[in-house]
Amino acid sequence: MFIDRVAVFVRGGAGGAGIASFAKRKGKPRGKPDGGSGGPGGNVVIVADSSVSTLLEYSRRPHRRAADGTHGQGSLRHGRRGEDEILGVPLGTVILDPDGTVIADLVEEGQSFVVSEGGRGGLGNAALVNRNLKAPGFAEQGEYGVEREIVLELKLMADAALIGFPNAGKSTMIAAVSAAQPKIADYPFTTLVPNLGVVEVGDRQFVMADVPGLIEGAAEGKGLGHEFLRHTERARVLVYVLDPSDLQTVGIGEQYDILRAELAAHMPGLSERPSLVLVNKVDLGDIGDGLSELKERELDLQVVSAASGEGLADAMAWIADTLDAIPAQSLHDPDRAGGFMLHRPVSTDLAVEATQAGWVVSGRAAERAVAFNDLTIPIAADLAAARLKNAGVDEALIAAGAEPGDDVRIGDIVFEFQPDDEP
Prior knowledge:
The chain contains nine helices and 18 strands. The protein is α/β, with parallel strands linked by helices. The strands form four sheets. It has a six-stranded mixed beta sheet, with helices on both faces. Strands 3-1-8-5-6 form a five-stranded mixed beta sheet. Strands 15-16-17-18 form a four-stranded mixed beta sheet. It has three domains: 1-154, Spo0b-associated Gtp-binding Protein, Chain: A (Distorted Sandwich); 160-331, P-loop containing nucleotide triphosphate hydrolases (Rossmann fold), CATH 3.40.50; 351-416, 2-Layer Sandwich (GMP Synthetase, Chain A, domain 3). Mean pLDDT is 83; it is low at 182-191, 217-226 and 330-338.
């Protein structure tokens, strides 16, 4: 089954917890702190892999999580890092946020992108020693990994795309010029998934896609238009396959106009790419008046028969020659380079929001301060309070109007606001 769009829920591994322990020596039941730190959690990584051809695996198993880091141990033994969860995807896969923002565009073998980072491991008590805390009897917890939803969308990496109405003969054509074996029958929408074939012209070769049939309104989603049009976006050459037979309700001139308009509506500049117009089914006899009208438009136009093979060799040679003259980088979207990666800096902004239940503080530094520490241990709670103050939480709450005794939520923790009066 060919799957070209799927939502995936990913989560980085949790960091391992640090441990509080002390070196044991003869005559010294409690020596120096020697608790090891927890290992960081693994990342979830998307990797472009040419051996993968569909997103079917992620449709069946949409929830993916990297391994957790292991906990620290005594004698300064630190936890191991959790293994990454590697998700192989076909070349041409675009990674998006649920709102449609493109995060990365993986077009080359081995390109990768971390979509979900693992959590930091908690520090053991040996790492918490400072001049004011000589022998901490506590350690940090590990941090949870980042959890998010992403959308994987495949845009085929074809050099040329066959575009036409249902039953125009595209599948017969790609079967005639390559080793592709699409389903072929005399009824509309036989092809419901794109077919790829490798076409050889002498010592040259290129990849051609048979895009499922388009109808008027495809750019607005009619006839699964959005799903089908997506696979034309990376093609460097567009091949319009027109059908003069009675199977179509409009002539070949109108077919061409409709197809070109749908491409233009789907993506700016798409309809302006180099193109070849093939009037198919010449073996059926009279093509009609539409051919003369098309010739007057000064298009690159050829008359062929996918069924008999007439004219196909010349058509494939034209495509190969045109591809030779087009830089390979034009394969990618015009508004961004191939292999596009959206690098978002981790937000350090501190936000304070007033709610009916009290105050809600968000921000990476604040959330980490409470997540890493066991607040049931007084000295650990004091350390968390100091970190919150250093992060500017006290100052931000006071500026927002918080009063001593107000409830404050940071992450999953709720506590009473008791600002430190000391500077």
